[in-house]
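QA checklist item 7 of 12: single-chain prediction sanity check.
[x] sequence parsed
[x] length recorded as 463
[x] structure emitted
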Amino acid sequence: MVASESTCAFELTGSKWLGAETEFYVGIEGISGTGILWNTAFITAMEEWTIETPFTFTFKEEYRDPCTNDGLNGVDFVEDYCGSEFGKNTLGITVVRYENTILGEPNLVQADIILNGSEKFDIFGGALPPFGPLSDRYDFRRAALHELGHVIGLEHEDTKQAIMAPEISDIDRLQPDDIAGVEALYSGLDSCEIKDLNFGITVAALETGDCNVKELTVGGDDTSYVDIYRFQLHGTTKLEFVMSSPILESVLILATPQLEYLGVDSDIEGDCNSTLISTLEAGNYLLLANTYNEEVKESCTVIGPYQLKTVLLSPQVLGANSSLLGGSSSAQFRGGITIDNGASYGNRFKPEDSLDMTAEITMDPAHIGQAGFLVVGAFLDDQILFLNEQGEFEYANPIPNPLTRAASKVLGSDESITIFTDLVPATLGIESIVVDFFIGYGLDSNPEELYFHQIPLNLTISP
């Protein structure tokens, strides 16, 4: 929880909606005695939760039967509880349906609000009137606020002032405890450190003091430790993740930033290691290095060091396009560095490795068939080098005008560039270096314009 027990006392099970949002179908017929449409009051109740908390309700003004398991959220007055009797003094019931997930409690996937049509409802604010025409009525809007809290994932609150109190009262708006409950339920990622994933080798450990799954998912009883890494892809890419340790029972989980789980390797057969291979579209992702809540075999523990290796199994998409003069191009750039003839790609290598580096350009259709040129630039520290047509890098200080060309040619639909082959850094006296490569092209008709990518192709050499 994000607040102490003395401040808030909300109740959470941990079940929640993926992405902190859901859509309701609202088609309640009729109007209240005070002249307000039932539909309007329900929509304003949803809007209050949306404005005051991290949760978002959207809606369609269409009717859906709340007694039907159709995967859609509906609401209506019903004379009985979908064929059963309502309990005594029950104004409404929220029926929720769940779907199991890899970590934490099951996700919510459907929630229907069934209001007791045998009770007398109206719509009014303020304290419950002790006498007068509304004294025998229940305020529909505050009942809707309460049931929508159950939809979000909140339980009843018995000790603090809250709309989620088990009985209707003078409270007709969300209270700090209600808001804090939603913030806690949907802010688990804020409780954990999220590190940038290194496309190469990372050495770390799962140990006392690390974030655990219960903190991450806000609920349940899984206290296994977890490290969270984020990464971004700029195009469809195949990757291999390997979590290895001589003593730590390793579990790898791939997820979206909303914790929608995309893949897991939790196999406990054999050694303590875990491997996960996946082809992912462009976007942002999380990789979770996890273990078990308790030991599952004698040879592996639930606390200890691990090595995380991330390997690209396809060339890297090098981000959005840019140009020197602001021109437009739909070309796509892709490149990679390999030591195993293209079986895998990476950016971190040892001085003794034999490296091959290639790049590909899928050309803008408007530029296909035009006379042009290819350019490869290498940026390290304060130095810039360009690949010439003899396949050698030459220093550019100052930058030449025109730019040094790696090739001059009529541009095809797909252009491939071999930047180097069988390059062993150690033979050149290189033991440690960081270089960012950029690949570009231009047209002879406008030689000062250069089209290139925004994300560099990085090469890091270290012992």
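[x] summary fact logged: Confidence is low (pLDDT under 50) at residues 1-9.
[ ] second reviewer sign-off
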